[in-house]
């Protein structure tokens, strides 16, 4: 009996020592460590890719010919009344776009900052419009007709304008969040576009001088004068710029998804606003899908 108790004690001591030497596995404690459960993706590094999509173009031609009319009516009484005429309207068009991008991400925990350069080519992204307007301008500021004479300046303007956006490069700063295989992000930056812009205006000006008199009975009588052309302000002016570079700004948001190791897909929306060229303002809305690889 004593030998049996001694043997049982020795066995218990050996079992305790062996349990103390075993590794402390997380599964034995009923859970996993952060290292085994971490689902974040490494987005840090240089990446490159290509994209394609759809572009909606809104071109504002309302003030496009103002520079030409100011030249035609310079130093005349008609310059001020015609300076802000909205001869034409905003025109919309759509086209496809193709491009490429190159960038660099820096990751701090779940936050991702990046700098990206893009190139976009637009397939026949052209807009065209025309318009006409007539107005009877009576004794405009600076006009000095003879006594009892009223000047009627008849001004008719006919204009056309066109704009074509060929391509664009941009430099964008990005800020994203590591959502595992997903990375939502937003961006903003500067852009330079290449455009062809043209405008033409034709003016036709006449002058009629009506005389106000009083007859023998004290009645006021208006004698309508003869309408005469004014050749100095009746002319056509045209201006055209080819491959004109114009600056602007971009902003938007997107989402990237890791497909396999460094291969990822993206979808994004981009708003582009260019500074006016010859009083013609262009705005773009770009929707794209792309494929890239992070090294």
TrEMBL record:
Protein name from the UniProt record: Outer membrane protein beta-barrel domain-containing protein
Q: What is its main location?
A: membrane
Q: Where in the cell is it found?
A: Cell outer membrane
Organism lineage reads as: Bacteria, Pseudomonadati, Pseudomonadota, Alphaproteobacteria, Hyphomicrobiales
According to the entry, every stretch annotated as the Outer membrane protein beta-barrel domain falls at: 20-295
What is stated as this protein's family in its record? Answer: Belongs to the Omp25/RopB family.
N-terminal signal peptide: 1-19
Keywords recorded for this protein, A-Z: Cell outer membrane, Membrane, Signal
């Amino acid at each position: 009996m004593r030998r049996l108790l001694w043997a049982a004690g020795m066995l218990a001591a050996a079992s305790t020592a062996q349990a103390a030497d075993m590794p402390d596995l997380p599964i034995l404690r009923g859970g996993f460590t952060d290292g085994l459960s971490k689902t974040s993706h490494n987005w840090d590094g240089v990446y490159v890719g290509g994209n394609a999509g759809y572009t909606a173009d809104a071109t504002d031609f309302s003030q496009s010919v103002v520079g030409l009319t100011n030249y035609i009516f310079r130093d005349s009484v008609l310059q001020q009344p015609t300076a802000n005429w909205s001869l034409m309207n905003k025109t919309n068009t759509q086209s496809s776009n193709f491009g490429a991008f190159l960038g660099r991400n820096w990751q701090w925990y779940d936050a991702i900052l990046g700098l990206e350069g893009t190139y976009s080519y637009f397939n026949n992204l052209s807009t065209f419009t025309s318009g006409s307007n007539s107005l009877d301008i009576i004794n405009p500021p600076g006009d000095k007709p003879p006594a009892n004479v009223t000047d009627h300046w008849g001004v008719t303007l006919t204009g056309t304008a066109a704009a074509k956006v060929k391509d664009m490069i941009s430099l964008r700063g990005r800020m994203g969040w590591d959502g595992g295989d997903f990375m939502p992000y937003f961006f903003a930056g500067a852009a330079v576009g290449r455009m062809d812009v043209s405008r033409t205006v034709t003016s036709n000006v006449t002058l009629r001088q009506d005389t106000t008199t009083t007859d023998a009975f004290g009645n006021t009588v208006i004698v309508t004068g003869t309408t005469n052309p004014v050749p100095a302000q009746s002319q056509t002016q045209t201006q055209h710029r080819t491959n004109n570079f114009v600056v602007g700004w971009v902003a938007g948001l997107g989402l990237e998804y890791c497909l396999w190791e460094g291969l990822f897909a993206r979808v994004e929306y981009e708003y582009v606003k260019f500074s006016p060229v010859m009083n013609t303002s262009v705005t773009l809305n770009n929707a794209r899908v792309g494929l890239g690889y992070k090294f």
